[in-house]
Every structure is written in structure tokens, then in C-alpha cells.
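In this supplementary section we document a worked example of the pipeline. Step one takes a protein sequence of length 93 as its only input; no multiple sequence alignment statistics are reported here. Step two produces a three-dimensional model, which step three serialises into C-alpha cells for compact storage. The input and output of this example are shown verbatim.
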Amino acid sequence: MCCLILSAGFIGPRFALALWWIFGDKVDAAFSSWIWPLLGLLFLPWTTIAYVLAWGPLNGVSGAGWLLVALGVLADVATYSSRAARARFASEY
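The serialised model returned by step three reads:
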């Protein structure tokens, strides 16, 4: 059960961002190039989703939007560290 939740946390944001990028236009509007959302999709999906949510067409990301982006960074760090912790504790048994 725990592996299923961890897998959903790892694959879920990538899947959601990919669908948003394919079927929406806000990802293309938030980034000036296609390389940044692609790198975000591969390495920092929570941060990329938070940036796209916080981005506004008039002034980009500002104010509380940066707090949302920081929460996305924390979510990415938690996702990667949970995989490392799971591997470390699994090797002890």
C-alpha cells in the first residue's frame, strides 16, 4: 500500500503536468521556451506545477506566488527524500 502511494506521488504530478501542457496553453504562456517545462517535467514536477499555477499574464509570479513555488520545491524535496529513505530502511531488513 505504501509503495502505491509513493508511486502516485512520484508519477502523479508528471502525468498532470503533461496533460496540462498538451491540452492547455498556460504552460506555454508561463515559460518562454519549451526546454524549461520539459526539465521541470523530468526533475521538478511539483515546482513546475506551482510556478504555472502562480504565474499571471500581467506580472508573472509575484508576492504570494513565490510562496507557492517554494511549497512546490519542498514537495519535490520530500518526494525525492522519501524514495531515498525507503531504500535505506528497506536495506536494513
